[in-house]
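Before our next group meeting I need something from you. Please put the record directly below this note.
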Amino acid sequence: MSRGIIHPVVAALLAASPLAGAACGGSAETSTTEATAAALFVAVSPVAASEQPITRFIRVAGSLTAEAQAAVAAETAGRVIATPVERGTRVTEGSELVRLSAVETEAGLAEAQANAAQIEARLALGSTGPFEVGNVPEVRNAQANLNLAQAEFDRIEKLLAERVVSQAEYDQRKTVVEASRQQLESARNTAQQQYQALQAARARVALARKAVADTSVRAPFAGIVGQRMVSTGDYVTKGTKVAEVVQVTPLRVQLTVPEQFVSEVAVGQPVSLAVDAYPGRTFTGTVRYVSPALRADQRALTVEAVVPNDRAELKPGMFATAEIQQARKTPGVLVPATAVQTIGGTSRVFVVTGDRVEERIVTTGQAVEPLVEITNGLKPGEQVATANINQLVDGSKVRH
């Protein structure tokens, strides 16, 4: 074949190739256009805002305080001989905090017991036996003398009737009877006085025994030792503070409730607490006290709640944010939390209308996971975008 001549089949193929290229180029442009158009529509998964009754909470703040806190003082004087506790020591009710020397108090107890025993012996009375004035030796002797004198007088009185004795002897015996009766009465009075003295002596014994017991200063309730003020060797007097005990379980929290919520608070309502020391955690308590009157300076109600603290995680003095559950549920407009976009403190939702969205500035209320309340800016039944909201602006085209 000559080099200058082109085969007819080859020529036909060369002639068709530009048309084929043109046809391929048109198909590619169409696909790109359709993809671009589809990319302009954002998938938003719209959800209708619903109106539902929800549980309301009153949000207030307050400080945690100890259920009880006592600066324990010595009730008798003495030198400190032992300090079994340190700061932070857990103690139970009655645990020994400080021990004082008991030498002087034990001696005082022995003396008081001896004085009481002396009076008991004089009255022929046991330490626990009942007091009978007729059993006192002096009274029994006086009674015996009176009985003897009365018998002699009765005999003389009969002899006088028979004129065997004189009137003078009769009068003498009569005088002896009267004197014996007076002696008996005096003995009885003395015995009563001695019994009262015994009562006083027994009271001194009880005081002396208490003084001995008071040489061991003990915790008035279970708690934690916050501070110990004395050391071994110190001399303390009555009333000297020796240790501080703090009861940390349960704790109390005093809250101030605004006037408009007064009717929503009652004893026994649950309370949820949050503290900065434990972010993300919630502690629960119960309303224990509701003030019968508002504070005039704040027009607010004082409420006290009690919070269990078995693990002693909460500390007195912590600032707490509290939520008190209201007794009644009230309706609210709710949307998924994913539908709300908050930037710079401003919240917004995108309301879906047809194939476009409208940006709405809204006010949020209470969170009801996974929903959030919209208090202003949205009506029940309106559709809001819940997906890809970061890609939306007012008027964006969307697809459901």
Observations:
- Residues 1-30 have pLDDT under 50 and may be disordered.
